[in-house]
User: What shape does this take?
Amino acid sequence: MSIGASELLREPGGFDAPPGSLVAGRSPLVLFWARLRRDRAALVALIAIVVLVLVAICAPLVVALFGAPGPNAVDANAMDAFGAPKGPGAGALFGYDSLGRDVFSRTVYGARVSLLVGVGGTAIAVVLGVVVGLLAGFYRGWVDTLLSRFVDVLLSFPILLLALGIASACSLGKGCVGGAIKPGLGTVLLVVAIINWTYIARIVRGQVLSLRERDFVAAARVSGASDATIVFREILPNLIAPVIVYATLLVPQNILLEAALSFLGVGITPPTASWGAMIADAAQNFDTQWWYMVFPGAALLLTVLSFNLLGDGLRDALDPRRGR
Assistant: This one.
């Protein structure tokens, strides 16, 4: 039985087919998955992230399953005869902190804060960065000059110092923007979005400057398409791959930024469980209460590592030249 030429294509780079051999046509999604599944580190990272998300969403069920109390519940039996918190054992899987709270429960609930800041802050930053990058790259001229210089000014500030300044200002009194941004989680999300959208804007601007000169954009202009149509139907779809990759790599940076702000005392407000705040509380007594720092620190390490590995895998899978 013969196969039509329209049903066959040459295998793109990155697969084991012999040169010149013909294989069945595949959609871009199938090609993407074929490249991604060969990266075992990225697949393991993806599974770890899915498990982490499920644990964060089902935190009350997970805590109840292990028989642990709530994250802010104080156990009267948490201290030993010398007044020091007990370590990991049958009664508390990860031990207790200096206030008698269960470390396992707080570590599980801390995943909620980290993922919300990491994913939510990245989503806000991506939206802002894509909008600014599209405007600057597509219209060029004075629009590009004005937006690019504004981005350069923001990038000239040290990231952590800028974050500390904004977080500190919004953590006092009623917050920022007339009380719209409250101290705590809202402040952290604001800081993350303000700081990180600039990097995405620069990447998108560079991509748009290249895409706007392509033949398919010129064909759309000749056909009478408006600027909005060209931007949303021709250019924006071609930005999805690089934006997804960079957003995936930006999530762990935002998680670390939240941890750093909470560690320095201007992040998530107590008694909300946060990995950064837990590490800060344990820093003074690490020599005698090692478990209070080790477990949230390990959770933070594994989360950041998983997102970084997944980001690298997505970058290779979405770029055929890297998948060879």
